[in-house]
Amino acid sequence: RWWPPPRPPPPLGGPVLLDFYADWCAPCKQLTPKLEKLVAEAKGSVRLAKINVDKLPELAQALQVASLPTVMIVHKGKLADSFQGLLPDAQLKAFVEKAIALAGGPASSEKALEAAEAALEGGDVAEATRGFGELMSLPEHTPVAMAGLALCALKDDNLSLAQDLVADLHKKFPAELTKPAIRKAISKVGLAAEGGGGSDKSLVELRLALDASPAEHTLRYELAQALVAQDQVEEAVVELLAILKKDRVWNEGAAKALLLNIFESLGNAHEVTKKGRRQLANIVLM
């Protein structure tokens, strides 16, 4: 069993504590809760694999477990350290801290997530994909990592894969959909699909057509869609606000819906979002 539950095996090369125990072992029952607490405090830096020697005797034999409890640190496929019996709390904490150090320090998984997000922001899609892919093995990061992979797919012009990943998010992690990073990814994929379903005309053609018929909301909306598809969202916001100034409920609220999707994809802290929301509020209050 993995702790915190449920846990798949850690990423390749990540440190793991092997806790060999048996249901009849009284010292094991004292030790395991302490290990669980220390591992939980490590915030993903290490994993704890609890191995019942009565159910997996071959593994215990292969690793020469002679007494219980026995705890081992395995890192990059090698035994880094071990102990048998019970340790004083201070020594047990030091033992777990050794595993944490091998992982690169406390909260290393959060640092890995930040690094993957920074790589994506910097345009290094390959590195971001690798980083998010590794984080998929950590349950506490799986939803956000899946959202990150959807954004990587968009960067690679693979809208179909991005949509599949978003569908998986809705299916497997409905309770996580309100997290900002996940909402942002879902909105970006939705915007990409929206832009892909817009006009076949180029931006130049749409602008010329709109110059000839400035009151035509459908043309302005198609221009906004095309701008979104070209990642020119600030200009798209201007066009959508122009529609809303004239008709707040045009096309059953299509302009407002697309505008809000843009804000969601950018995040509340983005200057375009903050400015756009102020302008939208002024229009609503007119």
TrEMBL record:
Keywords per UniProt: Disulfide bond, Electron transport, Transport
Top-rank taxon: Eukaryota
Cross-referenced InterPro entries: Thioredoxin-like_sf, Thioredoxin_CS, Thioredoxin_domain, TPR-like_helical_dom_sf
Recorded GO MF terms: protein-disulfide reductase activity
SUPFAM superfamilies named among the record's database cross-references: Thioredoxin-like, TPR-like
GO CC annotation, single: cytoplasm
GO biological process: response to stress
Record bears the keyword Disulfide bond: yes
Parts of the chain that traverse the membrane: none
Domain spans labelled Thioredoxin: 1-101
PANTHER family: GEO12009P1 (PTHR45663)
Protein name: Thioredoxin domain-containing protein
Native organism: Coccolithus braarudii
